[in-house]
Amino acid sequence: MASTFKAGAITGVGAVELVDVPTQEPGIGEALVKIEASAICTWEQRTFSGAQGNKFPFIGGHETAGTIVSFGPGYKGSLKVGDRVALGGASCGSCHWCYTGKDRVCEQHYGGSVDYPQGWGPGGFAEFKIHPADGLFPIGDVDADVACLTEPLSCALHAARLSGASVGMDVVILGAGVMGLMNVIAMKKRGARVIVSEIDAVRLEKAKKVGADVIIDASKEDPIEAVKKLTDGRGADIVLAAIGHKVANEQGMQMIAPRGTFVLFASAHPEVPVEVGPNAMHNNEQRIMGVVSSEKEDFYIAAKLIRQGQVDLSSLIQNRYQLSDLKGALDEAILPGTYRIVVKN
Ligand SMILES: [Zn+2]
Ligand SMILES: [Zn+2]
After folding, report:
1. Residues of the chain with pLDDT under 70
2. How confident is the model at residue 1, as a pLDDT?
């Protein structure tokens, strides 16, 4: 191992620098991973574009896949040096949330973050990374470009599981960007009928391609009426907002059936409050729930689906860049309508 490795730091709005980070040995409970690929998510996009206030320098990259180089002392798990893995959430194993199987809420969930003198963040835009060994999930011999999408798929599987989606249900996904499509794939896996509402015709076609049963062009028809018509006037059992937008939230609230659930999947920047009619919710026994990130169960299953070829995520990848051109990758990623940009080593 060389004494330093390269990492791509966002040093300010629109600015990127390749920095040299000193190589360290993994500690107890950790593993050193040689990174093969990391995809650019909205967190990195918003940091680079300045839409989300964030501390610089920031080393992004939380949708990451690589190969295990070494373990810290005393590793007793079943992974081996040379195994290819996706990097997911960690957990302490001994808090209330871990004991009750809700490790997403564990304080150690984001314990894989890095904090170098050269920058902080999830740290995937780099040649190497030390990661908690319990946050590594086997991906077999799948291409790294696709394997790094384990993390976003796990978030969609988490949302689908917590929402209670199952066969026979009508599910509406609002928005057909990358995360909208991931949610289409996840909801289809749980057997639901999936309806996608979106204003962009190209994105709607993409939604059909990944498995949406019905698409609604919200630029041409009233999506609330369309959903009511498709469900004999009931509304949808689950509506998931994959875009953090006031209009989407308001529409979504009006689309849910009695006993229905509205899922807030996306964060909103800026955050605009949504008005809720408590009596309507009370009388119709409806729920609003937030979801973020995923649990080990979801991450493991996402990796398994990808490893076994049970999902095809290749159409979600728009382009690939080398780490040395991280700026070019981010410039393209923040263009409207872009799907995933993957940064490779
Ligand atoms: Zn992400
Ligand atoms: Zn814990």
Report:
1. none
2. 82
Residue (of 289, 235, 277) closest to 258 by Cα position: 235
Encoded tokens for 76? 């007793």
Ligand with smallest separation from the Cα of 41? 1
pLDDT digits (tens, 9 = 90+) for 205-243: 999 999 999 999 999 999 999 999 999 999 999 999 999
- Phi, then psi, of 333 in degrees rounded to 5: -60, -30
Q: Ligand 1 centre and the CA of 24: distance in Å?
A: 26
Q: What confidence score (pLDDT) does residue 54 get?
A: 86
Sequence-ordered alpha helix ranges (H) in the chain: 42-49, 96-99, 144-147, 150-163, 178-189, 201-209, 223-230, 246-255, 278-284, 296-307, 326-333
Q: What are the structure tokens assigned to 338, written together? A: 């872009």
CB-based contacts of 292, cutoff 8 Å, min separation 6: 104, 155, 267
Q: Helix (H, G, I), strand (E, B), or coil: what is residue 167?
A: coil
Say what the pLDDT of residue 52 is: 83
Q: How far is the CA of 233 from the centre of ligand 1 (A)?
A: 35
> Which pLDDT does position 223 carry in this prediction?
98
Which ligand sits nearest to residue 265's alpha carbon? 1
| C-alpha 124 to ligand 2 mean position (Å) | 23
How far is ligand 1, taken at its centre, from the CA of residue 151, in Å? 6
For ligand 1, the distance from its centroid to the CA atom of residue 222, given in whole angstroms, is 30
Kindly list the protein residues that place their beta carbon closer than 5 angstroms to ligand 2, a single-atom ion: 91-92, 95, 98, 106
CA of 41 to the centre of ligand 1 (A): 5
- The predicted-structure confidence for 84-143, as pLDDT tens digits, reads as follows 999 999 999 999 999 999 999 999 999 899 999 999 999 999 999 999 999 999 999 999
Other C-beta atoms lying within 10 Å of the C-beta of residue 5: 18
Place of tokens 């209330």: 96
Neighbours of ion ligand 1 (CB under 5 A): 41
- List, in order of start, the domains of the chain with CATH numbers: 4-149+313-344 (3.90.180.10), 156-290 (3.40.50.720)
